[in-house]
Each structure stands twice: as structure tokens, then as C-alpha cells.
Specification:
alpha+beta; 7 strands; 3 domains; 356 residues; elongated; 11 helices; 5-stranded mixed sheet; Helix Hairpins; two-stranded antiparallel ribbon; Heat Shock Protein 90; single chain; 13% strand
Length: 356
Amino acid sequence: MNHKKPTETQKRRLGLTLMYSGVTFVFFLATMLIVGIAMAVLVHHGVLVPGPVTPSVNRIIWGMVLASIVIGTLMAFLASRIPLRPINQLINAMNRLARGDYRARLKYDSFFGRYATGREISASFNKLAEELEGTEMLRSDFINNFSHEFKTPIVSIAGFAALLKRGNLSEAQKREYIDVIEEESLRLSAMATNVLNLTKVENQNILTNTSRFNLSEQVRSCVLLLERKWTQKRLELELDFDEHFITANEEQLKQVWINLIDNAVKFTPEYGLVRIDITEAGKTMVISVANTGSMIPEAARERIFQKFYQADESHATQGNGVGLAIVKKVVELHGGAIQVTSESDLTTFTVTLPIE
């Protein structure tokens, strides 16, 4: 027979149960003690004596029964406020969270707080509140930033469309304005697509539609899709890999490489370097996308994969803070991992995926 040892969490839960059971037993014992003392006093003063039960004695006994019920109820009502206080505190804190007050924190007094379970409850609740507060701040920033990012291309499209409508333009001017409208339209489309993709992968827990394909060819095609961006900045691209094949969701991995390469191009200064490597290590594939440029602060490195977060708080570069969140989710769906290193003037994103 397999006997499992109780875990530390189970021991703490048992300790909490025994504590509340002990409190209940104390209430019961106190009630019996009070009733017993009252009975002893009555016997001592001759009110209750051995012998036949007379009507007066019968009334006394029933009176003691009622008194014990009333005393026990009052003691339970008054004393139960002590063990129920932590629960009331937890309910009040949860109600604050439900009302949108994410600054609510749970702090028990020394009586309950000294127990491991009490510390665990307060720590878990406070962690939840901190996560909700952080998410709410990111959501609020995202709405503001996303509204700004959407408004800019819309204003550009409307402005250049109005200029085209007026007429009296040279062919060169018309082509220039049409190019701007096209570029801003594609920018809007990319932002909307990213948000839709994030919503889609967030609701997905099982990897589907997998097939075996040439990963190297897919990465090269993503580089070509972004050719206009890196040629405008005169960047040097180094693609150092042979032909590698992988079994995965082809469409989802394409989003990963487009987001990573686009990020690298975006944050690389003119005449900088973007390097992509693919290597096989046993049953895993390691893909790294590195670029020269400014270093990502360590504090930002821990948050860049959170949705809506933007390391560039000045918003000097285009983006809405969902690209890397998509990357992380897709990589995790494939049973892989992603990490970032940023030292001196080189930032590298490394994706590790199972080959099969």
C-alpha cells in the first residue's frame, strides 16, 4: 500500500482546523463549567437535594437548561468574533478588490498572523492584489498609448487624402501622398492584427494544426517581408544557419519571427547589425535574434513579455506592447522557452523549441 506523506500545506490546513476545533471546544467547556458551578451553588444552599423530583426542582432544572442554552449562545456569539475576525478581514479585502480598489492589502494581527496558514493567506492575497494592480496600470497605459498610436496614422491618412482630393498636384506629389497613405494603412492593419492575435493565442491552451516544415526558409521569408524597414535604416543582416526542419504550428511561429525581427530592426540604430542564428541541440532547436543598439534595463527585462508593457516609455518608436506577449505565449504553447540578454550594445532574444 502506498502511503503518501502529508505535504507542508496539508499540515498547515490541519493545524488551522485543529485551532478552530479547539476554540469550539473551549466554548463548550466554558458553558458546562458555568452550569456546573451554578448547580453546585444550588446544592450547597439546599435548593437542590437528593430525593423525589418536586415541581419546584423540575422548574429549576428546566431553568438551568434554558440558562445554559442562553449562556452558551451568548458566549459563542461574543467569542466567535475572535476566530471569525480573519475571515471578515479577508471578505472585506476581497470586496475592496471587487470594487476596483487594487491597493487593498491583507495584514493579520499577531494572533492569527503568527500561524503559517495566516501568513500564507495574507501573502497569497497580497500577491494577487499586486498582480491586479500592475495589470490595471498596464491596461490603462495600453488604452492611452493604443489610442495615440491609432490616432496618428488615421490623422495622416485623412490629411493626405484631403490633399489628394483638392487636386492641382504633380505626379510626384501624388505618388508620395499615396505611399504615405499606404504605409499608414499597413501600420493600422499591423496593430489591429497584433491585438487580434494576442486575444486568439491567450484563449488557446492546446497546440493544433502542427506540420513539419523548413524553419530556416520560414525565417528567411520573414526577413524578406521586413526588407523595406531594414533597408531604410541601412542595417547589416547576418543569417548564419543551415537548413533546419521542425514540427510545429507554422502560422503561429511565423508571428514569433516577424515580431522578434521587427523588434530588432526597430531598436537598431542606422548602419547597425541584426544577426539571426539557428542551431540544433539534441532534441531542441535554438533560434537567436540579436541586434546592436541601446541596452534594455534589467528591470524592464523582467516585464517586456507582459502584455501592454513598453520598455520605450518615451514612445519614440512605434509599437503597442503586445508583440512580445504574443511571442511568449506562442513559444510556451509549443513547449519551449524564451529569454533575453542585454549587455553593452548587444541585445539577444533566444527561443528554444522542441524539434518534434
